[in-house]
């Protein structure tokens, strides 16, 4: 972990968002981040770790690790987290929304924020006029963050910039995921094959006051691991530089 964090910092990243089970001592993680100069901007925490019999231990771990933002990484979908695909319906997602509201109340008592990370199925699954995305937006409390994933949004044939604009006060974390309709995840931010409209996305983020742009790069062959992370950082930085003059001229 230490070598990974140091290399992330060397690339230029200012923070990291964690995912996965609690393997390392939380004090070690907090100490490394402070020493290296990286911010813990969130932790993707599985639904099973946020249940009545697990949440106290989960919140204790996060408090010791210095986490302030806890993101539910997924519900439903092809992974069948929380329910089977055969059970998928609007009522299931409304129930999730109410449960997330309860989790947020418990978390806020201990100075944590709760959020939810989007995948393609929240946009492309329809229950009449509703989708899981629209139901979560409607029925979760306004304090709950909506972490939009741009690549997953495009995969579902939705518009990431519009989704951010529609929920601008809540999209404080954005997963900047390069995605190509032809090549899938085998691309990077800055490539002509990447179908994200970064100027529009970043403009929407700027207007929304988004706190973190989080690179989630899933190439496994063409641009793997740190090579992809470096390309994405450079590409995102260039788009941000191009956005700045336009903002300055408006000011």
From TrEMBL:
It comes from the Bacteria. Coiled coil: none annotated. GO terms for molecular function: isomerase activity. Keywords: Isomerase. Gene3D superfamilies: Divalent-metal-dependent TIM barrel enzymes. It holds the Pfam family AP_endonuc_2. Residues 5-240 form the Xylose isomerase-like TIM barrel domain. The keyword Isomerase applies. InterPro entries: IolE/XylAMocC-like, Xyl_isomerase-like_sf, Xyl_isomerase-like_TIM-brl. SUPFAM superfamilies: Xylose isomerase-like. This is Sugar phosphate isomerase/epimerase. It comes from Paenibacillus artemisiicola.
């Amino acid at each position: 972990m230490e070598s990974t964090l140091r290399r992330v910092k060397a690339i230029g990243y200012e923070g990291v968002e964690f995912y996965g089970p609690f393997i390392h001592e939380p004090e070690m993680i907090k100490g490394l981040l402070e020493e290296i100069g990286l911010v813990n901007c969130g932790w993707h925490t599985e639904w099973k770790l946020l249940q009545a019999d697990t949440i106290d231990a989960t919140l204790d771990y996060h408090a010791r690790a210095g986490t302030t933002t806890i993101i539910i990484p997924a519900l439903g979908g092809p992974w069948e987290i929380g329910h089977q695909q055969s059970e998928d319906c609007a009522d299931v997602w409304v129930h999730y929304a109410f449960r997330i509201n309860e989790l947020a109340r418990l978390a806020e008592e201990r100075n944590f924020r709760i959020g939810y990370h989007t995948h393609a199925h929240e946009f492309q699954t329809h229950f009449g006029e509703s989708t899981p995305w629209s139901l979560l937006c409607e029925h979760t409390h306004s304090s709950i963050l909506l972490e939009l994933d741009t690549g997953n949004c495009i995969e579902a044939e939705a518009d990431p910039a519009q989704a951010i604009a529609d929920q601008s006060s809540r999209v404080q974390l954005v997963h900047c995921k390069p995605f190509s309709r032809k090549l899938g995840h085998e691309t990077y931010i800055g490539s002509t094959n990447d179908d994200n409209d970064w100027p529009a996305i970043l403009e929407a983020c700027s207007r929304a006051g988004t706190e973190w742009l989080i690179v989630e790069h899933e190439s496994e062959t063409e641009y793997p691991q740190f090579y992809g992370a470096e390309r994405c950082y450079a590409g995102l930085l260039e788009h941000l530089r191009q956005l700045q003059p336009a903002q300055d001229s408006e000011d």
